[in-house]
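Input structure tokens:
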């Protein structure tokens, strides 16, 4: 690997440590999460159910809510049958399972505080179970309401990125470039980007992880309305000056991307992370256009499905 021509500021470990031998894989996953798995503590000591319910996908959240709802009602229906179905008046004559089904639907009415009135508890045990279920139902719905509000009110970015980072001629040098866009219809303003270079360097027969900030052709846009091609010129002021494709591989290069912007919908800043490893670089290529005029020339069409499209040069 060719030596750098200048001395650059090393930003230490950024929280990732500089010990190459103790780490594996990339630092940041493609979805923006950190590539870290925590062991050594009990599950409940490092796992936050509240955080998980706020951040998991919607279909998983709905599955958890519905499963919890049905399981709790099955438990309380079983309690009604254990204490004796004679403690529930108004039940129709039938088999055990027909009584159990009526107890289940009575449980759903009590759990949701609907209470239609045909079936109602009598006696001490029936009223104790019904009273406890009402309390559990109120607490569960209060918790679900709070989590639902948190999920809807939490600003969530929806940046999409080109699948690959391109290495292409730029002015009189070569440049690294990738493309990003906002997939949502909200307005993002004052969007800023910072790229940190993660690179393995050998010192005293030991490899260390070094971090350098890369200068960009433009590191801020006022409004992210179309796509943004982010460019780092690999000129004399770059720690990657004169790097070849083999140099990138030997140095185990990874670009850590940090994005910050203001979301007008929520009135808050949103943050995003992404990364590219050296094996995701495409050499001697350029991006193809991804927006065009409409047929009536009244507006611009941004084709988000073309954000990764490129063509090879020469």
């Amino acid at each position: 690997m060719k030596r750098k021509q200048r001395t650059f500021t090393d930003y230490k470990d950024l929280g990732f440590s500089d010990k190459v031998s103790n780490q594996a894989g990339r630092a940041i996953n493609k979805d923006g999460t950190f590539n870290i798995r925590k062991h050594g503590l009990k599950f409940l000591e490092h796992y936050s159910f509240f955080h998980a319910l706020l951040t998991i996908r919607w279909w998983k959240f709905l599955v958890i809510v519905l499963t919890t709802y049905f399981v709790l009602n099955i438990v309380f229906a079983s309690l009604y049958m254990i204490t004796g179905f004679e403690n529930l008046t108004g039940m129709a004559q039938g088999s055990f399972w027909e009584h159990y089904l009526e107890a289940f639907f009575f449980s759903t009415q009590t759990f949701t505080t609907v209470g239609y009135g045909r079936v109602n508890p009598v006696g001490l045990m029936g009223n104790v179970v019904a009273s406890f279920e009402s309390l559990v139902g109120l607490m569960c719905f209060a918790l679900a309401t709070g989590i639902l509000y948190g999920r809807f009110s939490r600003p969530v970015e929806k940046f999409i990125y080109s699948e690959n980072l391109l290495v292409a001629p730029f002015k009189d040098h070569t440049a690294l470039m990738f493309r990003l866009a906002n997939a949502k219809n909200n307005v993002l303003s004052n969007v800023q980007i910072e790229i940190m270079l993660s690179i393995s360097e050998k010192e005293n027969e030991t490899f260390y992880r070094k971090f350098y900030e890369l200068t960009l052709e433009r590191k801020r846009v006022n409004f992210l309305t179309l796509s943004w091609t982010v460019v780092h010129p690999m000129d004399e002021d770059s720690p990657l000056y004169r790097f070849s494709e083999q140099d990138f591989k030997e140095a185990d290069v990874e670009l850590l991307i940090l994005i910050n912007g203001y979301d007008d919908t929520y009135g808050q800043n949103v943050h995003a992370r992404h990364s590219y490893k050296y094996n995701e670089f495409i050499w001697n290529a350029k991006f193809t256009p991804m927006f065009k005029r409409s047929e009536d020339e009244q507006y611009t069409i941004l084709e988000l499905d073309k954000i990764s499209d490129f063509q090879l040069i020469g």
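Residues 62 and 174 are 49 Å apart (CA to CA). Helices lie at 43-46, 49-55, 58-83, 96-111, 123-153, 245-250.
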